[in-house]
Design goal:
Layout (H helix, E strand, L loop, with lengths): L2 H11 L11 E5 L2 E4 L4 E4 L14 H13 L10 H14 L3 E6 L2 H15 L6 E5 L8 H6 L3 H4 L9 E4 L4 H7 L5 E6 L2 E2 L5 E2 L2 H14 L2 E5 L13 H5 L7 E4 L10 E6 L19 H16 L2 H22 L3 E7 L2 E6 L4 H9 L2 E2 L1 E3 L3 E4 L7 H28 L1
Parallel strand pairs: 3-15, 5-6, 5-7, 7-10, 10-11
Antiparallel strand pairs: 1-2, 2-3, 4-12, 8-9, 11-12, 13-14, 14-17, 16-17
Helix pairs in contact: 2-10, 3-10, 11-13, 12-13
Bound molecules: pyridoxal-5'-phosphate (PLP).
């Protein structure tokens, strides 16, 4: 089908809750994408963070095909191998000696963690503390944990039992414990939707200490930052390797493009998710588990944490140059292959121009360009993408200068 025909179907039948760019995707491989006209794009935001080993990685595709032909789905009244093997891998890489519950998305992983936190706490401690500018998902629990009025607007009332604190402000976090009602602190080690704002190591260490003092759980939302894109499996392991969270949530790149979320909880915590407390009919879908196992195998075989570290260094060098050279690049924030570039003007025109020139990225919080390249991205691909992006920024800046001159 051609683009106009596809768009016609969307216009008539698909709810318009997304702002979509005017191309239809036909196929994708690695960090490359082709639209229905055959035009090629470089994708430095593959799957919005879900395709962490690139699009359609052949090993993941083969695992999915084989598993689909053998056993597509089963429910959790029984056992199957892929779920057990995947849980073993999640435990090995999270390294807090815990066990895993599998959900279907990041939102559901957040829901599981929030319920687990309250199941672990005495009745008088119901409050979950989260950070301003956070994002934890869009169901009512996860949305209420998400501290952003823009996400709450029009769908209130949001749920009670949440308290928001400014990120990296330990005195404020300490104050949040004053009422002695805190069940857990739930933090993104690197805020993703918020525009790539990392926690400091001191903040995570301080949060750990406060949680220990008050008998609250420390829970990390690694849904976007986890899976390896920061150079280790968890961003928390990069920022503060000495801090062990009690609960970690994953999704996005975990399934290599298939929907799967996970709640990993340490010994003494996971036991509270007893039979009947929580569940998911689709949870740990067999094909999604097989895909996720294949993603771990790709990470190991292709030594992807090392590639992330090397590519992140390269990006850092180039972007440091931009900051010196381009006055409209206000700030660059980066942890591994999570990159936020703040512009002096709204990023939408830059995104549109980049699309024209064959580059896919996105923009969050109006002015922050966001890059989440695949873990197997190459120097050549990064250079190609950065070249397009720089030209796009320069073009938009020049157009703005002209408009300003006329005004
Ligand atoms: C994307 C995201 C979520 C929500 O995940 P979905 O799969 O979209 O439900 C939650 N937390 C963080 C940090 C995310 O980036």
């Amino acid at each position: 089908m051609e683009f106009e025909a596809i768009k016609g179907l969307f216009d008539r039948y698909v709810i318009g809750n997304y702002a979509r760019a005017p191309i239809a995707i036909a196929r994708a491989q690695g960090s490359e994408v082709w639209d229905t006209t055959g035009k090629r794009y470089l994708d430095l935001l593959p799957g919005l963070g879900c395709s962490g080993v690139g699009h359609c990685h052949p090993h993941v595709v083969a695992a999915v095909q084989a598993q689909a032909a053998q056993l597509l789905h089963f429910h959790n009244n029984y056992y199957w191998e892929a779920q057990g093997r995947l849980a073993e891998l999640v435990a090995k890489y999270t390294a807090i000696g815990g066990k895993t519950f599998f959900a279907n998305s990041g939102t559901e992983a957040s829901e599981g963690a929030l319920k687990l936190a309250r199941l672990c706490a005495p009745a008088e401690r119901r409050t979950i503390v989260t950070a301003l500018n956070s994002f934890h998902g869009r169901s009512y629990g996860a949305l209420s944990a998400t501290a952003g009025d823009n996400f709450h607007m029009g769908v209130e009332p949001i749920l009670p039992g949440f308290r928001y604190v400014p990120l990296n402000d330990l005195p404020a976090l300490e104050k949040a414990f004053a009422a002695k009602d805190v069940a857990a602190v739930y933090l993104e080690p690197v805020q993703g939707e918020g525009g790539i704002f990392p926690c400091t190591g001191d903040y995570l260490r301080g949060a750990r200490k406060l949680c220990d003092q008050h008998g609250a759980l420390l829970m990390f939302d690694e849904i976007q930052s986890g899976g390896g894109r920061c150079g280790r499996f968890c961003a928390g392991q990069v920022i503060a390797p000495d801090v062990k969270p009690d609960v970690v949530t994953y999704a996005k790149s975990l399934g290599g493009g298939l929907p799967i979320g996970a709640v990993h909880a340490r010994e003494g915590v996971h036991q509270k998710l007893a039979p009947g407390t929580h569940g998911s009919t689709f949870g740990a879908n067999v094909v999604c588990c097989a895909a996720a196992i294949a993603v771990f195998e790709v990470i190991e075989r292709e030594n992807l944490f090392a590639n992330v570290t090397a590519m992140a260094e390269h990006l850092k060098t180039v972007l440091a140059g931009w900051q010196k050279e381009l006055d409209c690049v206000k700030e660059v924030r980066q942890v591994g292959l999570m990159v936020g570039i703040d512009l002096a003007f709204p990023g939408k025109a830059v995104i549109d121009e980049s699309l024209q020139q064959g580059l896919l990225i996105n923009c969050t919080h109006n002015i922050t360009l966001r890059l989440l390249p695949a873990m197997n991205v190459t120097t050549g691909q990064l250079n190609e993408g950065l070249g397009i992006l720089k030209q796009a920024i320069l073009k938009v800046r020049a157009a703005q200068a002209q408009t300003a001159g006329k005004a």
